[in-house]
Amino acid sequence: MSLTYSQITTLINDNCDTDDTRYTLAKKVVDVNLALDQLSLRAIRASGKWQVDDSNHTKDPIITTNLVASQRDYHFTVDEQSNLILDIYRVMIADENGRYYDLEEVDQQTKGSKSLGFVDGQNLTGKPTKYDKTGNGIFLDCIPNYSYTNGLKVFINRESSYFVSGDTTKKAGFDGRLHEYLAIRPSYYYAMRKGLQVANYLGNELLKYEGDEDKGITGLIESIYSKRTRDETTQIIPKWRSSR
Fold first, then answer.
1. Between the N and C ends of the chain, which has fewer C-beta atoms within 10 Å?
2. Which helix (H) or strand (E) holds 16?
3. Which 3 state secondary structure label does DSSP give 232?
4. What is the CA radius of gyration of the chain?
5. What CA–CA distances, in Å, run from 69 to 52, 74, 92, 152?
6. Any long-range contacts for 215-221 (C-beta under 8 Å, 24+ apart)?
7. Do 76 and 89 meet the contact criterion of CB atoms below 8 Å apart?
8. 178 in helix, strand or coil?
9. Considering the entire predicted model, what is its pTM?
């Protein structure tokens, strides 16, 4: 069941026997958004080839920028809607004819890697074949010797579309079966801060969603988002076992 922000805050009040005076809406929206961050990060980590993205975003998690001749570095901190970029996992570049191809990811800070062209001082120009991620920038090798409009295409993960107190009808852009988590996590931490007896119960409910890797418990978030690629063929490879 998908929950509106108003329903989430009501559920928090019910869980902790509190109200909007003792646990203000200003504090709730912070705690709910922190829970949304956790949901997003855990979903991204659990997802396979079907990358997770908040469905409230109006554009796809792909950003483009102009490729500029003689420019090696391109810096990104937010996407086109000012959402913070969490990760870059694929970079494509257009050739002189506008055909995009993938660049090989390398690490210019690792000695002995394939990144010599970044640090050897030659600054060779030509058709880029590799890229490095350092800080909030992408560095190309070779340095492009041509320009192309929107010639650099970057595939990203980004932060969620957050709640604001005044938008009571907004729903999280994730699987509705997990929306209760956005109330359980704030409820648990509020109960812990206030020393409420219900904290133990809420902790167990939280465990159902988050799991515990050390205890071998898979949470609902991981379980749901790790099974979204049903159209992919799963190959079972037998584990090698010694004959001794």
1. C
2. helix 5-16
3. coil
4. 23
5. 34, 12, 16, 12
6. 219/42, 220/177, 220/178, 220/181, 221/39, 221/42, 221/43, 221/46, 221/178, 221/181
7. no
8. helix
9. 0.82
